[in-house]
Each structure stands twice: as structure tokens, then as C-alpha cells.
């Protein structure tokens, strides 16, 4: 009898969450650290306007977290409704609470791929031409919850060097996001920075998407002063996730909204995603299972 009462109470609470979601007046978006805060807020402002227009929200709040964990904790705590995570960030969220968020879409490049790379960048005048040349040097990571900026280089560089990174490099350090990490290499504060990149297109453009592309487009770095010294296997593009408690109806509505965004507001889509993406495609949890397994083994939740 007690079990039935508890199950009934849980069902009522679940229905209550969905009902309140249907009537919600504020929609809360978490924005990962990567670029500086001013750029992130400016790029997402059009998205807030489009969401208010589409769904009648009185307010769409943008929360540009200082680091990836800020967004992850917001999703886990129910203080954020939506975010675009990296694969490792999604893995971290899932490992802490498998029911916290639901992946709905991921980005797709012009060549049809839904993956990208972690690349190692060094100053050309450093003399480093490959990861082998970097023994005893300093490696810069982006963020502990970044896929391309930490998890993948942590686990994949040793497959080339034969030893863990903390043994191969004299020092490894986090630099507070992808942009700061790349600038740290550019300014000579670290010898190599790992960065997210499509890995396709021209190096002089910073390739077609990723942080390298964004900082080149902004004029923050001269690509002629940098060289690629390492590249990972293909990584799955991160998911757009919705707080699961909002229910299936909102997941469907938001998936439809974002799928149409490249056509309804191409300029806004480009501002939010940056680089040479063509749109979003559906994605499910299983797409990230390999990353979840790697994260669980390498660094836990």
C-alpha cells in the first residue's frame, strides 16, 4: 500500500512539473564558458528575442557561466531549462543524474558530419611541429568539463606519446575556457593549447568552426603565427539539452523551434553557433555513450 501511495505521489509531482512548464513565464538558458561573457550575451540576445516571440515567454534569461560546471549544476539543480553542452559536459550531467536533462538535437556541418576534433595549437616560432616535440613543455587545457579541451586530449594524447600527460609534459594547467586557453598559447604562457575545431577548411581561417575559427574571425589571433601539432579522433558534437521535467511536449516544441531556426533567422543561428554549420539534426542519448564511458573511466562523474 505504501509503495502505491508513493508511486501515486510521484506521478502527481511529475504532472505538476509538466503543467507548470506549460504555463511558465520565464525560460532560462545556460551558456557555457568559452568566449568572453560580453560576446556570449551579444550572440544569444537574438535567440532570447526569438523564443519570446515564438512561445510568449515574458522573460528569457541568459546565464553565461564562468565555467562549464556552472551550467551543469544549473541543469542538475533545476535552475536552468536549456543549454547546449559539450559531449563531456553532457556525460558529467548524466553521470550525476541520468534523468536531469534530455538531449534533443546536435549541430551538423556542411559536409553532413556531426563531429569535430580536438586540435593542439602552438606558436610557429616555438619550434614545436608535433606532439613529440612538446616533451617537457607546458600543455594548456580549457575546462575540466570540456570534451575537446580536456577529456579527449587527456585520454588520447597518451596513445601517441606512450605515457600519461602529467608525465610527458613538464606542466599542465587549466586556463578558464577555450578562448583563454588558445590566447595563452598565442601569448606564450603555455606551449600548446588544445581547442575545439571542425578540422576542415583552411587553417588561415581557423578552419570552418570552433573557438580557433571564432578568434581568428574576431582578429584576436593571427593564424600565420600558429601551427597545428596534434589532432584527435572524431568527437561527437555536443547536444542541445532540455530539462527533462519540462516534459515531452516542450522537448518537441523546442526541437521544432531550433530545427527551423537556420531558416527563420539564419543570422541568429550563425551568431549562436558560429562557424560553418548548416543546422541541427535529432540526437539521442546513445550518441554519447562512448564519451560517457570514457569520462567515467578517466575522471569519474
UniProtKB/TrEMBL annotation:
A GO CC term assigned to this protein in UniProt: ATP-binding cassette (ABC) transporter complex
Position of the signal peptide: 1-21
Gene Ontology BP terms: organic phosphonate transport; transmembrane transport
Top-level taxon of origin: Bacteria
Keyword NAD: no
Claim: Kinase is one of the keywords in the record: no
Keywords: Signal
One Pfam match: Phosphonate-bd
Similarity section: Belongs to the phosphate/phosphite/phosphonate binding protein family.
Name of protein: Phosphonate ABC transporter substrate-binding protein
Species of the source: Rhizobium straminoryzae
Amino acid at each position: 500500500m505504501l509503495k502505491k501511495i508513493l508511486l501515486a505521489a510521484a506521478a502527481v509531482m511529475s504532472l505538476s512539473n509538466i503543467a507548470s512548464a506549460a504555463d511558465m513565464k520565464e525560460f532560462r538558458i545556460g551558456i557555457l564558458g568559452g568566449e568572453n561573457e560580453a560576446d556570449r550575451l551579444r550572440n544569444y540576445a537574438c535567440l532570447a528575442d526569438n523564443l519570446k516571440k515564438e512561445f510568449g515567454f515574458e522573460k528569457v534569461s541568459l546565464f553565461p557561466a564562468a565555467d562549464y560546471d556552472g551550467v551543469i549544476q544549473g541543469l542538475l539543480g533545476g535552475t536552468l531549462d536549456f543549454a547546449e553542452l559539450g559531449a563531456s559536459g553532457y556525460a558529467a550531467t548524466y553521470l550525476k543524474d541520468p534523468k536531469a536533462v534530455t538531449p534533443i538535437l546536435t549541430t551538423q556541418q556542411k559536409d553532413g558530419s556531426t563531429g569535430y576534433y580536438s586540435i593542439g595549437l602552438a606558436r610557429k616560432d616555438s619550434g614545436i611541429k608535433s606532439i613529440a616535440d612538446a616533451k617537457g613543455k607546458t600543455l594548456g587545457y580549457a575546462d575540466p568539463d570540456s570534451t575537446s579541451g580536456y577529456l579527449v586530449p587527456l585520454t588520447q594524447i597518451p596513445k601517441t606519446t606512450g605515457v600519461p600527460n602529467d608525465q610527458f609534459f613538464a606542466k599542465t594547467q587549466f586556463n578558464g575556457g577555450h578562448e583563454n586557453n588558445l590566447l595563452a598559447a598565442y601569448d606564450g604562457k603555455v606551449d600548446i593549447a588544445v581547442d575545439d575545431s571542425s578540422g576542415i577548411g583552411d587553417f588561415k581561417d581557423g578552419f570552418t568552426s570552433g573557438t580557433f575559427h571564432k578568434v581568428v574571425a574576431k582578429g584576436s589571433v593571427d593564424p600565420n603565427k600558429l601551427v597545428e601539432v596534434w589532432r584527435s579522433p572524431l568527437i561527437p558534437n555536443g547536444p542541445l539539452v532540455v530539462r527533462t521535467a519540462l516534459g515531452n511536449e516542450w522537448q518537441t516544441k523546442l526541437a521544432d523551434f531550433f530545427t527551423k531556426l537556420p531558416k527563420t533567422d539564419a543570422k541568429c543561428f550563425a551568431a549562436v553557433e558560429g562557424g560553418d554549420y548548416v543546422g541541427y539534426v535529432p540526437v539521442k542519448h546513445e550518441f554519447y555513450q562512448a564519451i560517457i564511458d570514457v569520462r567515467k573511466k578517466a575522471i569519474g562523474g
